[in-house]
Design a protein that fits this description.
Layout: H1 19-28, E1 123-127, H2 134-143, E2 149-153, H3 154-158, H4 174-196, E3 200-205, H5 216-223, E4 228-232, H6 236-244, H7 254-264, E5 274-275, H8 282-298
Parallel strand pairs: 1-3, 1-4, 2-3, 4-5
Helix pairs in contact: 2-8, 4-5, 6-7
Length: about 300
């Protein structure tokens, strides 16, 4: 019994080939029977005029958590981003170097002959006995400068200690000495911090000339060699009158005021500038202070 010879069955469906393309090739170009022998050197390939199917399409990437199908193209590696940098400091403040003292102030070259202390960043130490007017002059001077200026009062910082405050009027002892030293170091740190950020400062303290290591030497260590000391020393009668107007633990006895004033007289002949403000009000004393500082900037004192 004979069977009709027709087109062979289409090849099995391959990934990337649609059923229509396989049928079209088989229908239009019948080839030899699968069992027929092929001549030597014959390489199967597309016949002339044969219709070509669409280009194979790579399978889609596997869903996260599932294995990729055979022949899947791995996704491109994720873009590498540099590690996030910490946010920059937006305050504009200059960090204070540890122990960095302030240098000697230098006048600008254009005005080196006539320095202007009102527009120069300075560190000033105003020395004087109780009742000399140090705090009043320092506040006024700081208030009326053309550049930012801070006033740092040793007594204010010393009185930050509330419970356990060692009042020297109750007797000078190791506790009061330690609190004075601590207050001076605190004031020195504050002064360096202000100066590092372009803010001038004026400090006031009753520094005794007969205690150079604790007094003036201590301030030089805490602030630096650029500190400009100026002595405010009115007459004894003026000091007694001003002390009588004080209240609280800042008011001293007349005997104590006289003793301190006598010790302060040792600054005469020390080489430090001295202002006798017995006949000067606060604004007038501040103007004289500017004149003294202008000379000190041009020729810093040796101390």
């Amino acid at each position: 019994m004979q069977h009709a010879v027709g087109s062979p069955l289409p090849p099995p469906h391959q990934p990337g080939q649609g059923p229509q393309s396989g049928w079209a090739q088989a229908g239009h170009h019948p080839g030899p029977h699968p069992g027929a022998a092929r001549p030597a050197g014959h390489h199967p390939g597309p016949l002339p005029g044969a219709a070509q199917g669409p280009a194979p399409v790579p399978p889609p990437p596997a869903a996260p958590g599932f294995p990729a199908p055979p022949g899947a193209v791995p996704p491109p590696p994720a873009a590498q981003h540099p590690p996030a940098q910490p946010a920059p400091d937006t305050t504009g403040h200059v960090p204070l170097p540890p122990g960095g003292p302030v240098g000697v102030p230098m006048a600008p070259p254009a005005v080196a002959m006539v320095p202007d202390p009102t527009s120069t960043t300075l560190a000033v130490l105003l020395i004087g006995p109780a009742g000399a007017g140090k705090t009043s002059v320092a506040k006024y001077w700081a208030d009326h400068r053309r550049v930012p200026t801070a006033h740092i009062s040793l007594d204010d910082v010393r009185e930050w200690v509330r419970s356990g405050f060692a009042d020297p009027q109750s007797g000078w002892n190791d506790s009061s000495e330690a609190q004075y030293r601590l207050a001076r170091r605190t004031c020195g740190f504050a002064a360096r911090n202000f100066l590092a950020n372009g803010i001038s400062c004026i400090l006031d303290d009753a520094v005794f000339p007969d205690r150079p290591v604790v007094g003036l030497g201590g301030w030089k260590r805490h602030v630096g060699p650029g500190l400009l000391p100026v002595v405010l020393l009115p007459g004894l009668d003026i000091v007694l009158e001003r002390n009588a107007e004080r209240t609280g633990n800042r008011r001293l006895t007349d005997e104590e005021v006289a003793r301190i004033h006598g010790r302060m007289a040792g600054w005469y002949g020390s080489g430090l500038p001295i202002i006798d403000n017995s006949q000067l009000d606060v604004p007038g004393t501040a103007r004289v202070l500017d004149e003294v500082l202008a000379r000190a900037i041009a020729s810093p004192p040796s101390w």
